Task: inverse folding
């Protein structure tokens, strides 16, 4: 059975910043194929970084992340003035998605709500799964 994984923008930077193969590593953790989903607010957040940031390294990394995001399943999700993190929480709860993020604050919020989270270890090129996934 294919598991659905909702991806936060910072997670898509991990292949460049930490050298992590996020796709194979997630599937290894889940012991299953995964469908990677990016919400429109997450996609738009990365796109803004490619256009507006003045820092060359951040722009290059954002372009890389945007190219990855374009290959994922995109899910329309209206933000209605909410933060991207709030959209991720709402979608995860509504659809039962696993969330992949490097954001510690978001991770803690999701875990307090019972949402499984995949995140990078403090060091190395590995990811961790926290929470129950059936």
Result:
């Amino acid at each position: 059975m294919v598991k659905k994984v909702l991806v936060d923008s910072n997670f898509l930077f991990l292949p460049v910043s930490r050298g992590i193969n996020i796709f194979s590593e997630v599937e290894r953790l889940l012991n299953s194929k995964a469908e990677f989903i990016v919400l429109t607010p997450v996609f738009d957040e990365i796109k803004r970084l490619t256009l507006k940031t003045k820092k060359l390294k951040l722009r290059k990394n954002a372009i890389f992340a945007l190219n990855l995001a374009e290959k994922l399943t995109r899910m329309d999700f209206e933000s209605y003035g909410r933060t991207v993190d709030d959209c991720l929480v709402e979608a995860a709860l509504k659809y039962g998605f696993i969330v992949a993020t490097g954001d510690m604050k978001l991770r803690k919020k999701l875990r307090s709500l019972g949402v499984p989270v995949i995140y990078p270890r403090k060091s190395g090129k590995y990811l961790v799964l926290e929470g129950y996934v059936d």
Notes: The chain has one domain: 3-129. The first helix runs from residue 14 to 17.
